[in-house]
Amino acid sequence: MSDRNGSFDGVHRRNLARVLGLVHLEGPLSRARLTALTGLNRSTIAALAGELVDFGLVEERAPDPTNRVGRPSPVIAPHPALVAVAVNPEVDAVTLAAVGLGGRIAARRRIDVDGLVSPDEVARLTADTIDGWRSHELPDARFAGVGLAVPGLVRAADGLVRFAPHLEWRDAPVRAFVEQATGLPAAVGNDASLGAIAEHLFGAGRGVDDLVYLNGGASGIGGGLIVHGRPVGGTSGYAGEFGQNRPGIAASVDRRAEGGVLEDEVSRTRLLEAVGLRSADEPTLAAAIRDALAADGERGAAIADELDRQRRILATALANAVNVLNPSLVILGGFLATLADQDPEALRAAVAAQAMPAAAEDVDLVVAALGEDRLMIGAAEAAFASLLADPLAAAHPAAVE
C-alpha cells in the first residue's frame, strides 16, 4: 500500500518503528513493559516483536527471573549482530567503530595519518576496516550502513561536504565514495551536531529538551543544538558553528591569533604543544595534562597558565550561547571537556559572571558523558536513521513501492 499515514499499513509501520525505537533507546524491554509503554495490547506487541525478530533487528530472550505470579514476559533486545559503521575523519587520524543499536560499541579502530586524508581515502579505509572486521573481530556482523561525522559544513539535503577547512575538502561527495567502496548506504553529518544527538539520546543530555553541545576536536570547535527536544540544523544544516565566531577577549595579553576565531584561541593544537605531544587521542591528551600539572617546575606552571587562558576565552563564548539560546544544559566534549575538568567550578563561575543572571540561574555545565564514544554513537545514529524510521522498508525495500 502506498498510503503510509492513516491506513492499516501506515499504522503498522509506525508501531514497528515505535517498538524498535524503544528497544534502541531504553535497552532490553520485556513484552509486558513494551505493552505498558506503547498502550498496545499484548497480542499486538507479540506480533510486532515477532516481525522484528524475523527481520533480524531484535532478538527475544528468556524472561528475567521474577517473583511475580503468572507467566514471565519474554525480553526483547537489540540483535547483537546488527551494527552500523561510524567514521570520523580528522586531521591526525581516522577513527572508526562498529556500533550496535543502543549505542553499544562492538569494535573500534583508530588509524593515525601523517597527512590530510582525501574523501576517497576515507572511503577506502572504511571498506578495508569493514573487510577486516568481517574476517576477524566481527565475523557474524550484519552492517546496516555507514555514518560519517565530518568536521565541516555538511549540506543536510544530500550530505555533500561543502567545506571542511582543516581537511581541505570542498564540495566533497564523500557519501557517494563510501557507498561505492563499501556497497552500504551512507549518511553524512557534522561531527558536533551528531555528538549533540548522541549526548541527547544516550549521554549527559538524556531527557533534556534544550541544550547546547560544543565539541573540541583536532579540527577545531563545532557545536550542536537541541531545542524543544529536537536537533536544530538551520536552513541548510550548518547551524552550531561556534568555533567560527569571533571571541570576546577582555585582556589583550590573552590573544594569540590576531583577528582569529574562537577555535584559533581555544585550541587542541595549543594544548598538545604545551605538553610536548604531536598527536594524541583524547584520553592520552588528558593524561598528559594531568601528569604535567602534577609535576613541579616551570613547565607545569606554563601549562596551567595556558589552560586558564583558554578557559577564560571559552567562558565568554559559552556565556554568549547561554544569553542567546537560554538552554538548561551546556555539554562540553573532546578537549573542551579536558579544559572543564581541570577546574569545573572556575569555568561555571566565569560563565555565570558574563551571562544574564536570569539565564545563568537555569543552566548547568557538564562534560560529555559518552567520552570518546560520542561521535561514534552520533554517526551510527545517522546510519540507523532510516531503519529506525521504517523497519519494514529497511528490511523489505520493495514494501515502499
Automatic annotation (TrEMBL):
Please name the InterPro entries in this protein's record.
ATPase_NBD, ROK, WH-like_DNA-bd_sf, WH_DNA-bd_sf
Q: Which Pfam families match?
A: ROK (PF00480)
Say which domain of life the source belongs to: Bacteria
Which residue ranges traverse the bilayer? none
In the record, the note on similarity to other proteins reads: Belongs to the ROK (NagC/XylR) family.
* Alphabetized PANTHER family for the sequence: BIFUNCTIONAL UDP-N-ACETYLGLUCOSAMINE 2-EPIMERASE_N-ACETYLMANNOSAMINE KINASE, ROK (REPRESSOR, ORF, KINASE) FAMILY
Q: What is this protein called?
A: ROK family transcriptional regulator
The species this protein belongs to is Agromyces indicus
